[in-house]
Every structure is written in C-alpha cells, then in structure tokens.
Write a structure and sequence with these properties.
It holds the Pfam family MFS_1. Residues 12-513 form the Major facilitator superfamily (MFS) profile domain. With 523 residues, this protein is mainly α. The chain folds into four domains: 1-196, MFS general substrate transporter like domains (Growth Hormone, Chain: A, Up-down Bundle), CATH 1.20.1250.20; 198-255; 260-411 and 488-523, MFS general substrate transporter like domains (Growth Hormone, Chain: A); 423-485. The chain has 21 helices and no strands. Helix 3 (45-73) packs antiparallel against helix 10, helix 3 packs antiparallel against helix 17 and helix 12 packs across helix 18 (439-461).
Length: 523
C-alpha cells in the first residue's frame, strides 16, 4: 500500500478528530439545554431524561459491535457510514416536532457516535507509524479530553444565543467537512475478518447484557431511595450479568468470536481497561457534580460555569501532544501512574475547599490538577492500549477502552450520587429536628428536600415560599452544609478511585519494551 504524504495523514487526523469531538460532546452537551427543552416541548424534566438516556444507552451498547464490524469490513467504511448517520440524525433532532422523535433520533445519533469513537483510535494507529503514531494518538486523546469537558460551555453558549436546536444543527456543517476529509484523506485498513462469519449471537448477547446493566444503573440513579434488591433494579442488573456470562460462554466456543477472550489474559491490557474505568468513574462522572455545585449552589450561569471549567479541559489541548511525544521516550505506565496520583491530590484539595462560601478562587487549584490528569492520561491510555495488540485487534481494543470509559462514567455517576445522597440525608436528619418549628412542618420540609435531592434542594430552601418562614436562614444553612458534606464525600471517593486506578496500572501495565516484546511474540 502506497504511503500517504505527511500532510494527508494530518488532514486524516483532523477528520477523525472532528468525528470524535462531535460524538463525545453530544454525551454531555444536552444537559445544559434541558431547561429550555422543558419549555419548548411543554413537558417535565422526568420526561426529558430519555433525551440523555437514549444516547448513553445506545452509545455504550453499540461500541463493541461497531468495532467488530470495522475490523471485519474495513474501519474507514464503518467510520464513514457512522459519521454520515450521525450528521443525518443530528439534523433530524434539531427539527424534531415531538419528544418521541427526538428520543429516537438520539438513539440513532448514538450509533453513529459509537462507530466514530470506537474506530478512531484504530484508524489513527493504522494511518500513522513510529513516533508520529504516538503524537497523533496523543492529539486524539486531547480531543477526547476536551470534548468530554466542554459540553457546558459550548452547549450553554449555543442555547443562550440560538436556542436548543442549535446543539444539534452545529454538527451538520462540521460533520459534512469531516465526511469530505474522510473520503479523500483517511486510508482504509485491511478487512481482517472478511472471510469470517458474523458472530451474531455474541453481538446480540453483548448488546442485551450491557443494555440491562446500564439501564439498571440508570433506574437506580433515578430512584436513589430504592434498595438494590428492588425487583426493577436487581432484575435488570442480575439479568444483565447472567446474559454477559452467557456471552463469555459463547465467545469461548465460536470459531470467529466477536471478542477474543485471550485479550483479557494479558496483564497489560487489563491494566489499561482499569485505568479507562477509573478515568470515567473518577473524573468524568465527577464533572456532573462539579457542574451542579457551580450552577446550583455558587450561582454561575451555564456559560460562566463552562468558562471556569476550561481550567480542567484546556489542559487536554496543551498536554495531549506533549504526552504523545514523551510516550516515545519514557514509560507510559509510570507517566499514567504519576498523572492519576496528581488527580488524587486534586480531589483531596477539592474536598478541603468545599464550604458554604466556596467560590472558584478556592476550587481552581484542585481543578487544575484534575485537568492535568485528564490531559495526560487520555492520550497515554490510547497509545498504551494499542501496544501489544495485533493489527486485527486494534479496532476491538479501541472499542473496549471506550466501553470501559463510558461504563465507568455511568457507574461513577450512580455511585457518587448515592454517596452524596446518603451524606446529604444524614445531615438533614441530624440537624433539622433542632429547628424551632412544629415537628409536622419540619418533617414535611425535610421530606421535600430529600425527595428533591442534593442537586435541587437548594432551589427549595431558597424559594420565595421558604423565605417567609421565621426559620428560613437556619434552614438554608442546614441545606448548604448537607450539600457540602455530600460534595466533600464525592470528592474523597473520586480521589480513592483514581488512586486505585494508579495502583492497578502500576501492578498490571508493562513498560514500553515489555509491550513490544509481547507484540513480537504474538507475531
């Protein structure tokens, strides 16, 4: 195959970067548009949850399937088809006349997003080689980090100036540019499985299993006071686990499996997926709680919050290429370990900064360290994940890293939310009986605050109705302290998660030379 010119390769990276940016941005950008959508569709936040959940569920479920199809039929073909599907669905979403059409469009859009995301790393790895590959994967890691953290800023600006449809319409012109660049500049990879049979059973079982587990977590998130043994939660989670066990059983016996289970016997690969999970559950999940803190409690607007969160996301632009260059000289393993530990320190600083009077001035040191972790680990993880992988495995490696990153985010949002709820409720139970007011009134207000949860409790406590009560100030102080206790616990938990990720990387990942030896043995 004729080697591309240097310019063509970097234009190809631009095309793939645009696809990844749009696909990941649409995981978070809708959050800031929900209040406007409530008015536009004349509905409730509860009914709008599927605008978020449809994308999250379908995105996570189809990542591995799209990876396998890319490996079998050509990664460029599937990436290009996914990109076109994403652009068409984005246009439909912007014009959606009803909530049902928007929910369905979000699901279709997620299939396109999953295809772009799952194949981008493998395409970069096959379009570049040598030191250029590390730099290119580093830049792609930067794009992943920036897109995941910039949703509030971009979404807030678009909604504020152009209305909620703009968050979907903006994908159309950039998507068309990406399609044109992909057609002319991205080099196709061989169809490694063109003589293989499609593992239909594996695809169906993996989709059903992941759907059940992630939907079970979403149900639990929406009903924090339901027990894990509640039939609607336990049934989904247990059913999903059983289906995934059946998936492993099938994969071990079919001739052409969707996933080669031998990949999970490699300590280095296990280390990388542990890091991906820690990144999702520790840092990306935490962003949702940080946004709520800055908007609901400190009082910043969506755009003001997004601007301040550049303290986190801007580091990805700066450090991604740097990490890519350094990865060819130094051990990626120890760079990842060190970067995760820096994030742990950042979360400890965040926990210490939380107070009733907290402002951005107290938060930015911890946010900077979080940003450094995100900016370094993402690109390094992409490069490290590809080490030791055979060419025909790169698509699936890319897909699995993204699955564990997305699954980690979902688990993290639920887990951190339950920890915050528990601390919030415990403080309300301990302090509200001390208010000088009738017990019946106190219990009614407490029940309303607990049902609203930490994110919305502030709105109730500071409402015009509560302001007229003689104990309003004392109540507001209790609610703020309850929220602070929960947020500090969330910060400490995130610190523990990234430190555990660092330990997993230290114990399981191999250094550069060890990974190269593994690749040579496999060949």
């Amino acid at each position: 195959m004729k080697k591309q010119s240097t310019t063509a390769r970097w234009i190809a990276l631009l095309a793939m970067g645009l696809g990844v940016f749009m696909g990941l941005l649409d995981v978070t950008v809708v959050n800031v548009a929900l209040p406007t959508m409530v008015k536009g569709f004349n509905t409730t936040f509860t009914n709008l949850q599927w605008v978020l959940n449809a994308y999250t569920l379908v995105y996570a479920v189809t990542l591995m399937i799209m990876s396998k199809l890319g490996d079998m039929y050509g990664r460029k073909k599937i990436f290009l088809g996914s990109l076109i599907l994403f652009v068409i669905a984005s246009a439909i979403n912007g014009m959606a006349p009803s909530l049902l059409i928007l929910d369905l469009g979000r699901g279709v859009q997620a299939i396109g997003g999953a295809g772009m995301m799952s194949l981008s790393m493998a395409l970069v790895a096959s379009n570049f080689d040598g030191k250029e590959r590390g730099l290119a994967l580093g830049i792609l890691g930067s794009i992943i980090g920036v897109s995941s953290a910039s949703g509030p800023l971009i979404g807030g600006y678009l909604v504020e100036h152009f209305g909620w449809p703009a968050i979907f319409y903006v994908n159309v012109p950039f998507g068309i540019i990406a399609v044109i660049l992909t057609v002319f500049y991205v080099r196709e990879t061989p169809s490694y499985g063109k003589n293989h049979k499609i593992d239909l059973a594996g695809m169906i079982l993996s989709a059903i299993g992941l759907f059940a587990i992630i939907y079970g977590l979403i149900v639990k998130e929406g009903h924090p006071h339901w027990a894990w043994t509640d039939p609607q939660v336990l049934g989904l989670l247990a059913g999903g686990i059983i289906v995934m066990i059946a998936f492993v059983f099938v994969e071990a016996r079919v001739v052409d499996p969707m996933i080669d289970l031998k990949m999970f016997k490699r300590p280095h690969f296990l280390g990388t997926i542990i890091v991906a999970f820690a990144l999702g559950s520790g840092i990306y999940a935490y962003n949702a709680f940080l946004t709520a803190l800055m908007q609901n409690y400190i009082g910043y607007s969506a755009v003001q919050t997004g601007v301040r969160q550049l303290t986190i996301s801007a580091w990805s632009l700066v450090l991604g290429p740097v990490a890519g260059i350094l990865s060819s000289r130094y051990s990626k393993k120890w760079m990842i370990v060190g970067s995760l530990l820096i994030g742990g320190v950042g979360f400890f600083l965040m926990a210490h900064a939380i107070s009733p009077t907290v402002t951005f001035a107290e938060l930015w040191p911890g946010m900077i360290l979080m940003g450094i972790t995100n900016g370094m680990v993402n690109p390094l993880l992409n490069t490290a994940g590809m080490e030791g992988a055979l060419p025909q495995e790169m698509g699936m490696v890319s897909g699995l890293l993204n699955v564990f990153r997305q699954f980690g985010t979902t688990v993290g949002v639920v887990g951190l939310g339950l920890i915050q709820d528990a601390q919030y409720e415990a403080h309300l139970n301990a302090k509200m009986p001390m208010l000088e007011a009738p017990a019946k009134a106190i219990n009614g207000i407490k029940e309303a605050l607990i049902n609203a949860g930490p994110f919305s409790g502030h709105t109730i406590a500071f409402s015009a109705r509560m302001d007229h009560l003689p104990f309003a100030q004392a109540l507001q102080k209790i609610v703020i302290h309850a929220y602070d206790n929960g947020m500090a616990a969330v910060s400490m938990t995130s610190a523990i998660i990234v430190i555990v990720g660092a330990i997993g990387a230290a114990l399981l990942m191999r250094n550069h030379m060890a990974s190269q030896d593994l690749e040579l043995k496999q060949k």
